[in-house]
Write a structure and sequence with these properties.
nine-stranded mixed beta sheet; alpha/beta; binds pyridoxal-5'-phosphate; single chain; Rossmann fold; six-stranded parallel beta sheet; 2 domains; about 575 residues
């Protein structure tokens, strides 16, 4: 196979020629959003950041992959609040040409009866050993496209269902056409990161020239990401009829017969040779939901050098040489001297507190136990669980024993999420005198990085089992920060009580989504553990606390990273053996 030749067998010049030749890249990774860095604001949350982290690890490991996504000229949004603490969205101002290179390639697609030219920008990730990995951002904002079509790639998760349908056609069909135009003629595996790019199967069928779904299936791998219904796109055929060109429409009707509309998840499940969820529990829940038995799992991870603090990185380099190439070596973290680890941690904490002071005017105390909570303000994540019994909360956390930092964006049309944010901000003001609670606006990769390096403990309180995996807690483990979390997603696999952190609420049973369970149990347990275990350990048993930090690195960071994720995809999903990886 091509990739067998790829690394060590070849002379350098031939190797570098091949590295730049699309014909030698057999893997394409499609994602509606990709989060590479703060200055490319084409992501909204975990899905995009995961995609970026996977592509970065693939580059580090020399995996011959290319990424495909859309260019959002207006980004997701900048978060602001009005006087009533209600979230307001402002468009992001950014100039793609500062970060990306516009290529001359154009391909044609047809939507809503109009021809559209799709263009492409490229960003090249350079891996740790110099291996380049291109990420392609599709764009339609060009002459001579119709003004409405020029806006099709402006907003991430904006617009109506028709807008979204057009975007997904551009991503799947336009994306594959563009790859061919760029010279990618030997792709063996198309990896769909969530169902959004599923229409690429239509283009594969068109290229093939005859109807044989098995041959399409052989080329596609699908990762499903959420057990929450809003995460699964659905398009009525009534809409698709109006939007799609005739050939794509008839192929789609043949591929998805006897249904009134297309669920992108069902399309992905039906036309992929391998399907996985993003944690063990999530695979179980997905199998139950889709009435299948074949959904496998590859538990998510995070890209080590993106999320590690500079202080921790130096420490690991000194004590665990080679960890950047092989983060599995972090199992050696127990050899790191405790006082050095604590000093590196406090440095990150001070950096975070400086930012808090700068942006909110609030001065936090670096000697006080600090809990962080930051994620999309989706209601199932229950950012307000902490405040469900304020009297008890004050009893446990009052008296300057604990301080809290919150951040998070709500989707612009999710009023439930906005109400959550409003509540947090109001409670923060009401309790100002007794418990320091700060809210940092405009959660993004940069704020995520400051928080997951600088707090003492990471709080996570989703309604089980709706958190497919979660990744912000993994970013913490890369910095030796423990998790205090409901047993859901990745934490079921990473949790060892009193060793890598603490659980909240009962242990998981055979539950499926949307089953009723007693949420108040989670809140009671949260307060009790904070009071009886966590606060005493932090203040009275510092030695144990820092030892738990080392175990978090050794037992969690060593595993929940995207180097391990990419290797797992290579062996389980791509079925290829990359020598030298
Ligand atoms: C890591 C990250 C997320 C994902 O966090 P979860 O814990 O999975 O909810 C979301 N948004 C940003 C900006 C991130 O960096």
């Amino acid at each position: 196979m091509i990739q067998r030749l790829h690394r060590s067998d070849l002379g350098y010049s031939l190797r570098s020629l091949m590295e730049n030749d699309p014909a030698f890249r057999p893997l394409a990774y499609f994602s509606m959003e990709v989060g590479l860095k703060e200055s490319i604001p084409t992501y909204s949350g975990g899905l995009g950041v995961l995609a970026g982290d996977i592509l970065k690890s693939a580059a580090d490991l020399g995996v011959p992959m290319a990424g495909v996504t859309l260019l959002y000229r207006k980004g997701y949004f900048v978060q602001e609040f009005n006087a009533d603490d209600w979230q307001k969205e402002k468009p992001v101002q950014w100039n793609p040409s500062h970060e990306l290179t516009l290529l001359p390639n154009r391909v044609l697609i047809n939507l809503q009866g109009r021809e559209i030219q799709v263009g492409v920008w490229v960003y090249e990730i350079i891996g740790a050993t110099g291996y380049p990995l291109p990420v392609y951002f599709l764009d339609t904002d060009f002459e001579p496209n119709h003004p409405d079509d020029r806006k099709l790639c402006w907003y991430l998760y904006g617009g109506d269902n028709c807008y979204r349908l057009c975007q997904e056609f551009i991503l799947g069909v336009g994306g594959l056409r563009m790859l061919r135009d760029l010279g990618y003629m030997n792709i063996e595996t198309f990896h769909l990161n969530e169902g959004h790019a599923g229409f690429l199967t239509l283009e594969l069928m068109r290229e093939q020239g005859y109807y044989d779904p098995d041959k399409i299936r052989e080329q596609v791998v699908f990762t499903t990401h959420t057990p929450v219904p809003a995460g699964h796109d659905y398009f009525e055929f009534g809409l698709i009829d109006r939007v799609f060109p005739a050939e794509a429409l008839s192929t789609l009707r043949r591929m998805m017969p006897d249904v009134p509309g297309v669920s992108m998840t069902e399309l992905g499940l039906k036309y992929s040779r391998y399907v996985n969820g993003v944690a063990k529990k999530h695979a179980e829940v997905s199998n139950a939901m889709f009435r299948m038995e074949t959904v496998d799992w590859v538990t998510n991870g995070i890209h080590p050098t993106t999320w590690v603090s500079s202080g921790m990185r130096k420490l690991y380099n000194r004590h665990i040489p080679g960890w950047e190439q092989d983060p599995g070596r972090l199992v050696q973290a127990l050899t790191i001297p405790k006082q050095d680890l604590w000093a590196a941690h406090q440095a990150s904490k001070l950096r975070l507190f400086a930012r808090v002071l700068e942006t909110t005017g609030k001065q936090l105390d670096p000697e006080v136990l600090t809990l962080g909570f930051a994620r999309r303000a989706a209601t199932y994540k229950r950012a307000d669980l902490l405040f469900s019994d304020l009297k008890r909360f004050m009893e446990v956390a009052g008296g300057n024993k604990v301080q809290f930092i919150f951040a998070g964006k709500s989707h612009p049309s999710d009023n439930g999420g906005k109400a959550l944010l409003q509540k947090i901000r109001k409670v923060a003001r009401d309790l100002e005198e007794s418990i320091p609670i700060v809210f940092i606006d405009n959660y993004n990769m940069e704020i995520a990085s400051l928080l997951t390096q600088g707090v003492d403990l990471w709080l996570n309180t989703p309604i089980r089992p709706r958190e497919a995996s979660g990744t912000s807690g993994m970013k913490c483990t890369m910095n030796g920060i423990m998790n205090f979390s409901v047993l859901d997603g990745w934490w079921i696999e990473g949790w060892i009580e009193d060793v890598t952190g603490w659980s909240i609420g009962p242990e998981p049973n055979g539950e499926t989504p949307f089953e009723h369970y007693d949420e108040s149990l989670d809140a009671i347990d949260l307060y009790n553990k904070l009071e009886r275990k966590i606060i005493p350990t932090y203040y009275e048993n510092h030695d144990k606390w820092v030892d738990m930090m080392r175990h978090t690195i050794a037992l969690n960071a060593s595993f929940f990273n995207t180097h391990r994720v990419v290797r797992e995809y290579a062996s389980k999903a791509y079925s290829i053996d990359f020598r030298g990886m």
